[in-house]
Amino acid sequence: MEIKRVIDGVYWLNGKRRTLVTKSAYSDKPVYGEKIFKYEGKIYREWVPYRSKFAAAFYRGLNGVDIRDSYKVLYLGASSGTTVSHVSDIVGVNGQIYAVEIAEEMAVSLVLLSEERKNIFPIVDDARKPENYSSIVPKCDILYQDVAQRDQTGIFIKNSDIFLKSGKIGMFAIKTRSIDVSLEPREVIRNETQKLKSKFDVIKSIDLYPYQKDHSLLILRKK
Amino acid sequence: MDNSDFIDRARHKIKQGLSDDDLIKRLLSFSDSLEKGENTIFEQLHDLYFLYYPEAASLLAERDKFIDALKEACDRNSVSGKTGVRGDSMGYDLEDSEIQLLSMSVNEINNISDLKKLVDERLREIMRAKYPNTTAVLGPELAAEMLSLSGGSHSLINMPSSKIQVIGAEKAMFAARKRKLTPKYGIIYNHAVTMSVPDRLKGKAAKIIAAYASLAVKTDVLSRQDKSGEILEKMSKAIDKMRKKNGN
Lengths: 223, 248
Hints:
The complex is a heterodimer of chains A (about 220) and B (about 250). In chain A, strand 1 and strand 2 (about 10-15) form a beta hairpin. Chain A folds into two domains: about 1-50, 2-Layer Sandwich (Phosphorylase Kinase, domain 1); about 55-220, Vaccinia Virus protein VP39 (Rossmann fold). Chain A is built from six helices and twelve strands. Chain A has helices at about 55-60, 80-90, 105-115, 150-165, 175-180, 185-195, and strands at about 1-5, 10-15, 20-25, 35-40, 40-45, 70-75, 95-100, 120-125, 140-145, 165-175, 200-205, 215-220. Chain B has about 250 residues and is an all-alpha fold. Chain B has helices spanning about 5-15, 20-50, 55-60, 65-70, 75-85, 95-130, 130-140, 140-150, 155, 160-165, 170-180, 190-195, 200-225, 230-245. The termini of chain B are far apart. Classes of the chains: A alpha/beta (about 220), B mainly alpha (about 250). At the A-B interface, helix 3 and strand 8 of A face helix 1 of B.
């Protein structure tokens, strides 16, 4: 088994198959039943592409993104905290993740996770109304959004206006089916990128098939 | 920086966000699952028992009769004593260990049906306490089902009564876009009044019930007063008037 760095905190473990892992910043307990690897005394957690859109993007050829130790991340649509736990590995104990989730039942596991991982700051609120949490969330270095809503582009722009520092990266998981079922996915993404163009440079657009259906991840840089 | 402030705030929000509707929905689906499970276990047990004692099993096809006959003892002697079926069977030989297995399964079915009764009773209590008007108009089971199908009291109060009338008939409703044959009732069909009127008046009755159900839900959610007597009286008047007008 050999290990290959993708970005700090994220690695490929090359065995029989290549496996994406993050170096655990906290305990060696699995968060959602993922595999744990020990390599040269360090603990790595498997990052499953079928569970996480961010991981799927790495499997689909993403090879670098500006996210590193001690970054502040605003994460919209945190759900039960699967991807959040890996982002918390990447930014480390000095980083901060503000994880916004509206559904109470999902937020329960997010809160439980944040009790173990002190760099996760759970917020149970509506991402459509950033003014509700703008007083408690600082300017961030990364905005990650994964909300399957019809107006997801509007939500992204609204939040990036308030929270994202300029020149920093926004990651935007688009679920094309939520926006328009009748249009071709490619068409939907073209329309949505058009809306984003005035405020962002589009660095990359990654189709997440076959790991996630009808999803794409846009990597954007705020102007 | 410490995240405990955020955790406290989130915990508080989650606690506030939990509603009676969620509890009602869960209890209702639990009750449904219990019924399903009970039926499946009974079917399997009945099929199994058929092998050992086909004469008795074919006589005891209904669940209540079957459970009644096998409640105390499952061996052939006592079952044949209770039911009067001939004792020498053409089925497999029944051995002690199998008798134990059978009686345990019968117990299990009994336990599940007791549990279901408990769940239903609790559901009725909650419905009466939280939605007194709606429960009076629709009955606790139907009211709970209405809440769970519509997605909560807050979406129910925003519905016109014509939509409440056809809750549970979504398939027919969408088919009606092509066939121009709109459904007249959804789950309201199971209401005591709709059941009691003749077929040609069922649609009219459903309309009246839906109108008063809509009124009752709004009273429950918005004014939180128990005006069930008043609403029920008005509804029965309306139903009588409808019946008279249509010659029944």
